[in-house]
Amino acid sequence: MMKRLSLAAAFALSLTAAHAQEHAPAKPLEKPDAEGQKPRAAVVLAPYRFNDILWENDRTAHRIYSRDLEKAEPPSTSGIDAWGKSERWPYMDRQLKTGDQHQNHGEGLDFYDVGTGRGAGGLGVWQDNKLWTSRNWSSWKMIQNGPDVASFSVDYAPWPVDVDRKVWETRTFTLPLGTNFTRMVSTISSDKPGPLVVGIGISKRKRASGSGVFKKDLAPGRVTFWEPADPEKGAMAIALMVDPKSVVEVRQDFDNYLVLIKVEPGKPFVYYMGAAWDKGLDVHTPAEWDAYVSGAKADFDPTH
Q1: What pLDDT does residue 4 have?
Q2: What is the per-residue pLDDT across 49-82, written as a single tens digit (0 to 9) for each?
Q3: Which member of 42, 90, 190, 191 has the greatest number of CB atoms within 10 A?
Q4: In whole angstroms, what is the distance from residue 38 CA to residue 249 CA?
Q5: pLDDT digits 0-9 by tens, 33-56
Q6: Residues 6+ away with beta carbon under 8 Å from 251
Q7: Under 8 Å CB-to-CB from 188, ≥6 apart: which residues?
Q8: Whole-model pTM?
Q9: CA–CA separation, 68 and 48 (whole Å)
């Protein structure tokens, strides 16, 4: 009887400790030196965290996942992660190394849930009313690690589109200082000829506060999503910009809002993905986000 009581008491104590740890204030990140506190664009490969690729500038921060995470924590996703950021200097590497990246240590946090969707601007091929998506990136190449531009490329290994076609992709990501938008140049190749309809997605969200506000303006090829707020961590804002000449329509599947565009296999195309955090430095309301996206400049020429 005493043994049972002791076990029960130990279990209760462990639950109490876990609850206290969950709600304890996060230990502040150690700030970088004076040089490290200068605004900078940065790309980091994180071998300590299954080779995540992190990239950020003075306004926004993102992450994509490797095949190593897919093997360690299935299922994983080739969607794009977005982090809240409240300082002008790079913080993602230091934040991720805490092992507690989902809490705010004073410079931002990762509370965006990519889930099973496309996150902030991941893509797939739309066929037969279904989005066919790749697994995580299989290889990568650093192009420029700051200080003014963060740029890299990744390859996605072949994946099936229905039962009779395979496609594969190379994508370049470029994030300069002074913008919330990452410019992406994607080339999707195919084992069969004929055009493809590509779906570029934003993960849907459902919280007690609602499901957020999604808006589309297809004349300039732009969509925005203001997520429902987390009561403690705030709200993320996501946007996509695509070449209006390529737009087919805007659709939804179970996980995503999707902008469908027509592309030719083997021919590069450009799209932009942007994100902001309402507790960050630049965007605090849906109206501010919509105005920022409307005024953003886009270059859809893949040769530039």
Answers
A1: 43
A2: 999 999 999 999 999 999 999 889 887 899 999 9
A3: 90
A4: 42
A5: 999 999 999 999 999 999 999 999
A6: 126, 199, 258, 260
A7: 125, 167, 168, 169, 196, 198, 263, 265, 266
A8: 0.91
A9: 11
